[in-house]
Amino acid sequence: MSADLPDYFFRVRENGAFVFRVDTENRQRRIEMEQIAAVNLRNGEVKPHGDRKLTADDQAEIARWMAARSELLARREVDDILRTVDHLNMTAQWVQARATGEQLDQVTDSLLLAMHDLRTVLVRKKADRLTREGGGD
């Protein structure tokens, strides 16, 4: 079992992770995890835990994890938005085919405001991109 374990474990948290070094080479043959750092993905900060000095291997593994995690979160974010498009389509079908008047009363104003806000932002962003790409003619 110990041969299959990685040298590092990242306990994911909202804005990064706590980094642990995994040790299975001890007398009791237990898995021991020693916290070595805290990572903040938002600002790229890596704080060694306590008085610890991170080794080059530690820093390289943390940098690798940060890059991989950032890429994963970016992919998930786009996937979440594409799922939202699916939900909007399913919502339109629900409204057209199954929603009762009472249900529509519960959701119409919230949906209309959210969709109006989204449309406004999307139109503004698209106009900004077209202006930049077109050279601002």
When the domains are counted, the total is 2
Count of DSSP helices? 2
Kindly state the number of beta strands: 4
Helix content: 40-55%
Q: What does the average pLDDT come to?
A: 93
Order of helices and strands: EEEEHH
Largest sheet descriptor: 4 strands, antiparallel
Gyration radius (Cα, Å) is 24 Å
The strand line-up of the biggest sheet is 1-2-3-4
Low-confidence region ranges: none
Report the structural category.
alpha+beta
- Characterize the overall form: elongated
Q: Quote the beta fraction.
A: 15-25%
For the terminal residues, how far apart are their CA atoms?
65 Å
What brief labels describe this structure?
single chain, 137 residues, alpha+beta, four-stranded antiparallel beta sheet, 2 helices, 4 strands
What report would you give on this structure?
Strand 2 (16-23) and strand 3 (32-40) form a beta hairpin. The mean pLDDT is 93. It is built from 2 helices and 4 strands, in the order E-E-E-E-H-H. A 4-stranded antiparallel β-sheet has the order 1-2-3-4, with helices on one face. 55% of the residues lie in helices and 20% in strands. The chain has helices at 56-97, 101-133, and strands at residues 8-13, 16-23, 32-40, 45-48.
